[in-house]
Design brief:
The structure holds 2 protein chains of 2 kinds. Helix content of chain A is 45%, strand content 18%. By secondary structure, chain A is α/β, with parallel strands linked by helices. Helix content of chain B is 76%, strand content 0%. Chain B is built from 14 helices and no strands. Classes of the chains: A alpha/beta, B mainly alpha.
């Protein structure tokens, strides 16, 4: 008798708890849903353009959590705020092509107004991008493009000319080093946003005719494992003459390794790509010879602008290939990057207009 | 006296069914999620493109989950499933490059996966190493082997259209494979001696072996089966995205498969299992994944919300059982 009463109380308590929980979560969901509905019902207005729907652009990315793309996301945020659009940042955290393809397909099913995706695999994105275009959704490639001669139907590519940038890095390596072992680090071989740089560098070094022994090492998609791999490679090959990398995380790893083992004093040269804050610091301190800027901020910003123009003009104008740049940053030119902490380099979240005076050095 | 013997028949039958069948419970959760996502975003379910898309989220996790369920019933686990997922398509690719016809190459890939399963099983059963440790070792070994033989670069599967479409190239091909395998595995588990002996030896290994069941042979067979399914899934996915990538799959998909099995009602500690529950569990994960992406959740907050949703679904699942068992729902 008493047993069943206790059971009943327990059941009452659980039922009450369950109902409360259900009530709270329903209320939260309703609030969230309402919030979503309210923001999408707002018409967008801006400048000389008549009122239009808040177009949504879905940015699919291969390394969503990589710090290199922080300025890209700021560029996307600034452009979408400027033009009255919404964006979604999604994809895969560790370069899983299957997840990226799923994200593109989900964007098509969600009837996104535009899609932007780095084409990091030579074949896997052909069908999904064609499906998007068939559904009337413009697709732009940013940061990584399909190899030349590919049948990929993306409307335009906004990013660095990858092979050329690698080639120029290779030429610089041949200038700095006459002979010996040179290590080239790449995060994920075969991936189309970095492999062409490696190919270009190897080609340029071969063309120089110098007796440089090039070894290619894969370092992985995350910054932590990249650093460990680079350190262990150096420890196993302490007679090397140069360490160079073709992606942001590996470049930072090279710079840190060169500082920790004080390699410039031993005549070792190093260099790489992109302007992670640590990389910039270590160039200033003299531990890394150079890095190459590909302006990630505008890879997001210009892509949004192209999508907006395409949508506003009903598809008449908009897509255009944009080479976001290939600029060598050395100790002599690194000052501006150091002394400013701006959204444009991803080092600050504050919105700002950066003042500049004096002549513009090339 | 007759009054005291009159139980409340109608509600008890319904709640009894709910309490007894984990499949129905998790199916109810899946339905609730579908309704939620469909109301928030009208493109979630009722268009051809979105159904196809959803099925592609569900299919790979479901097939690997079937294999894991067979092992989990016996209290074992296969952590290397995600790496075999990436390994088998490369063996298929090299076999085709060596001149074999595509279907034979695919068979070679699946057999290679089976060999990994055989190693997993033999080490676990005959050397008596816990399966967690064994498959942890094969996880890293197979990963390294895949990276070495592929030199880290992705390759393209054969473009032979009929075969490729059958093996995952066509949009609905993967889900058809999933449903066929679900039916096959369900019959295997519930209606054949193999399955019934698996459940018996999982629930009571000592009693089962005393009764004459070959527990070790069962476990070995289930390890091979799990690896075969993981390899087949990798090949299907390779054809679907038209790219065979050494970085594909990995630990993420293995975790999702085990999670699908657990969500579907197969306890981690073993003793019982349900293939249909695993399929619905994979569907719940796929619905959550696809639904949140469609709504527009950004990558950084995505995992937070996914984790909270899985917890919510499981809490609902388990507490409804408790209430149903008390006969008071």
């Amino acid at each position: 008798m008493a047993q069943s009463k206790e059971d009943k109380d327990e059941v009452q308590g659980m039922r009450r708890g369950l109902l409360q929980g259900a009530g709270i979560s329903a209320a939260l969901a309703l609030m969230g849903g309402m919030g979503g509905m309210i923001s999408s019902a707002q018409a967008a207005e801006g400048g000389s353009f008549p009122a239009h729907k808040r177009w949504k652009i879905v940015f699919v990315n291969h390394v969503t959590t990589n710090p290199f793309f922080v300025p890209t996301q700021y560029g996307i945020q600034d452009a979408t705020a400027l033009l009255g659009m919404d964006y979604q940042w999604t994809g895969s955290a560790n370069a899983d092509i299957g997840e990226m393809v799923n994200a593109v397909n989900a964007a098509i099913a969600a009837k996104a107004d535009a899609i932007a995706v780095p084409i990091v695999d030579p074949k896997a994105f052909d069908k999904p991008i064609q499906a998007a275009l068939d559904a009337g959704i413009p697709v732009f490639a940013y940061n990584a493009d399909a190899p030349s001669g590919s049948t990929n139907p993306r409307l335009a590519y906004i990013g660095q000319d990858l092979y050329l940038s690698g080639y120029q890095m290779g030429e610089r390596i041949a200038n700095l080093i006459d002979s010996g072992l040179v290590a080239l680090f790449i995060a994920t071989p075969g991936q189309l946003n970095i492999q062409p740089r490696l190919d270009g560098a190897v080609a340029a070094i071969k063309k120089s005719g110098k007796k440089i022994d090039v070894q290619t090492i894969a370092t992985g998609a995350t910054v932590n494992e990249e650093l460990s791999k680079i350190k262990s490679f150096y420890l196993g090959h302490q007679d090397l003459k140069g360490m160079f990398a073709v992606d942001a995380g590996s470049t930072q790893g090279v710079a840190v390794t060169m500082k920790e083992s004080n390699l410039p004093s031993k005549g070792v040269h190093g260099g790489g790509f992109d302007l992670l804050p640590r990389t910039v610091d270590l160039i200033n301190e003299g531990f890394l010879d150079f890095t190459i800027d590909q302006q990630p901020y505008v890879q997001g910003f210009y892509t949004v602008v192209q999508a907006f123009t395409f949508l506003a003009s009903g598809g008449l104008v908009g897509p255009a290939n944009v080479n976001t740049g290939l600029k060598f940053v050395t100790k002599g030119t690194v000052d501006p990057y150091l002394n400013t902490s701006t959204r444009y380099e991803g080092k600050s979240t504050k919105a700002q207009i950066v003042p500049r005076t004096g002549a513009i050095k090339g | 006296m007759t009054d005291a013997q009159k139980p409340a028949k109608r509600p008890r039958r319904w709640s009894g069914a709910l309490g007894r069948s984990s499949e129905i419970r998790i199916f109810a959760v899946a339905l609730i999620l579908c309704v939620y996502f469909e109301t928030v975003n009208h493109d979630f379910l009722l268009t051809g493109a979105s159904l196809q898309n959803l099925s592609q989220f569900i299919a790979p996790v479901a097939i690997i989950a079937f294999g894991e369920i067979m092992l989990m019933i016996g209290g074992e686990i296969d952590l290397s499933a995600g790496m075999v997922f990436a390994f088998a398509p490369f063996i298929m690719y090299f076999a085709i490059e060596a001149g074999l016809p595509p279907w034979l190459g695919m068979l070679a890939g699946v057999v290679a996966a089976g060999i990994v399963g055989l190693i997993n099983g033999a080490v676990t059963v005959y050397l008596r190493i816990p399966s967690f440790v064994t498959t942890l070792g094969t996880l890293f070994f197979v990963n390294g082997l895949t990276l070495t033989i592929s030199r880290g670069t992705p390759v393209s599967p054969p473009e032979n259209s009929a075969f490729a479409a059958f093996m995952g190239g066509w949009g609905y091909s993967e889900i058809i494979w999933t449903l066929a395998l679900a039916a096959f595995m369900h019959v295997l588990l519930r209606h054949t001696r193999w399955g019934l002996h698996t459940i018996a030896s999982g629930a009571n290994p000592l009693g089962a072996s005393e009764a004459g069941i070959q527990v070790r042979r069962l476990k070995l067979g289930n390890f091979i089966l799990a690896a075969l399914l993981a390899g087949l899934t990798g090949i299907l996915e390779g054809f679907r995205i038209t790219s065979i990538d050494p970085q594909a799959g990995g630990n993420q998909i293995m975790f999702l498969a085990v999670a699908a099995a657990v969500i579907g009602g197969t306890p981690l500690a073993g003793g019982s299992g349900t293939i249909i529950g695993g399929l619905i569990g994979a569907a719940v994960l796929g619905i959550l994944n696809d639904g949140f992406t469609l709504i527009g959740i950004n990558a950084f907050t995505f995992n937070m919300i996914l984790g909270a949703a899985i917890l919510g679904a499981m809490i609902f699942n388990i507490h409804v059982v408790r209430l149903a068992r008390k006969g008071n729902l």
